[in-house]
Structures are given as structure tokens and as C-alpha cells.
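Re: the 114-residue chain
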Amino acid sequence: MVKKWLKGTLDGQSRIGILIYEVSRVRRRGLELLSVDRQGALLPEGPAATEFDYICLNEGNPTFVPAEPAIKLDRDKQRFHATFWVDGNRRLLVTVVDHLNSKVLLEGYPVVRL
């Protein structure tokens, strides 16, 4: 189970989108520049670069959390509390509570199948 605070990005938003990303395995590129130290050992000019690929798992079917009243950034930093977990069918589920008005907005809602 993972708990996160959701927040808007603009004043006046009427909903918040939940997009779920998978991070691919780390790929390291070969070193391009080498130098030699005083003992003759090869030294890289800098650390090896690391790349990550981010794949959105629900891009075609995002989940939205309604915000009523609309979001005010200065007021709503810790307004929407989300709890995520995976069920026996490998679905990522979410429950979202709006702490401004003490309402459960989504309960056990399937966001994406993993």
C-alpha cells in the first residue's frame, strides 16, 4: 500500500488527473572519453550516463479526481489523499479522500491493470 498527496497545478482546476508510469530498466551508455592517470590506468572523463524510459500505462484512459470546489493552490497543498494498492487480479486500485470536505471521491477504483 502506498499513500500520496495529490495536488493541482493551477488555481481553478476542477479535476486532477492520475497518470501511472512504469520506469524501464536502467541502461548505461558506453564511456565516450577516456584519459590515463600517472600510473597508466584508464580514467573516464565523467560518470557514465544513465537513462530511464518512462512508459505511461494509462495514457489512453486516465483517471480523474473531481475537485469541488475548484482547486486553490495556496489552500489545497494537502487536500486530496490517495491510497494505492494492487489486488489479486493485478489491478492498481486507488481510494481518494478530499480532506477539505471530508468526502471519499474514489473508493477502490481501478486505475490500471499491471
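The chain has a mean pLDDT of 87.
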